[in-house]
Amino acid sequence: MKVHYINILLFALPLSILVHNQRNHKKTILRTIKTKPTKTHRTLCECELYAPSNYENDPEMKEVMENFDRQTSQRFEEYNERMKDERQKHKDQCEKDIEKIILKDKIEKELTQKFATLETKIDIIDISPGVFEKSLADKVENSCLKCGNNMGGLVPGLALIGGTAVYAAAVNAATKAGMDAAILELENIIGLITLLKEKFAQLVTTTNFKCPNALVGAVQNVKNTYCVDKAINTQPFCLFSTRSVSNPLWFAESARDAAQEGLTAYGTKFVAETSPNAFLTNPYIASSIAIMIIVAIVLTIYLILSYRRKKKMKKKLQYIKLLKE
């Protein structure tokens, strides 16, 4: 048994030696870098810390220092320019403030000297009534001035509106009279009223009542539209048109007469509406004339009061001048 223990111990000793040598072998393996570095890095440990040759003779370091100096000088120049503008602004503001203070002191001094010479005891009786209330003439003058300003801009507009309204009313009345005359003359066409019935009045418009060709065309359009199917044999207008084969526009003469009557009635009514008597009796024109008369009266009053006020002020100025002398 002892022999076995000794053999075991003898075997364990070389085994432990082998394990220990294997660990040391793994730790001491050196790995070499196959690729070479593209750039060598300088560290402070490789050279002296304050050696001038490491900075002054290095082109990269010179370029960095030159860039730094240039940018620093540029920044200082910009700062000086800004400070120059700010200083000028503050200087101008200070000068203005000083002038205001000097002017204020000067005014206070002058007012103090003037108030020192005034009498401190003033009764209500010594104050003129004109201080508290305006005269009647001044009030009337101001009212007239305001009224004149308003009327000066209003009257020309009223006159223009009145003339335009009179002309428009005359045109409308003459157009209505011409249309009525044309419709009355078209009633002489055989069977036209019976054919159109309530649409007969729509045959004449504001554009064709005094135009012969337009009225002939309107009646021709009625013939082409309504004289179809059964109406050809039942309506008198269509029967007469079919029988007058040699003269298809048998109604043209009546249509031209209607246009002539419409034109005559239009001219007569327009002349009557624009005559002097009708012009003066028109409410727009009458109101415009009345307003112009009122404005003329108001302006006359204003001029009279203005002249009196100037005369009064002249006397006051002469009186004050005498008192000063």
TrEMBL record:
Keywords: Coiled coil, Membrane, Signal, Transmembrane, Transmembrane helix. InterPro entries: VSA_Rifin (IPR006373). Residues 1-21 form the signal peptide. Residues 73-100 form a coiled coil. The keyword S-adenosyl-L-methionine does not apply. Pfam families: RIFIN. The chain crosses the membrane at residues 284-305. This is Surface antigen. It comes from Plasmodium falciparum UGT5.1. The lineage of its organism: Eukaryota, Sar, Alveolata, Apicomplexa, Aconoidasida.
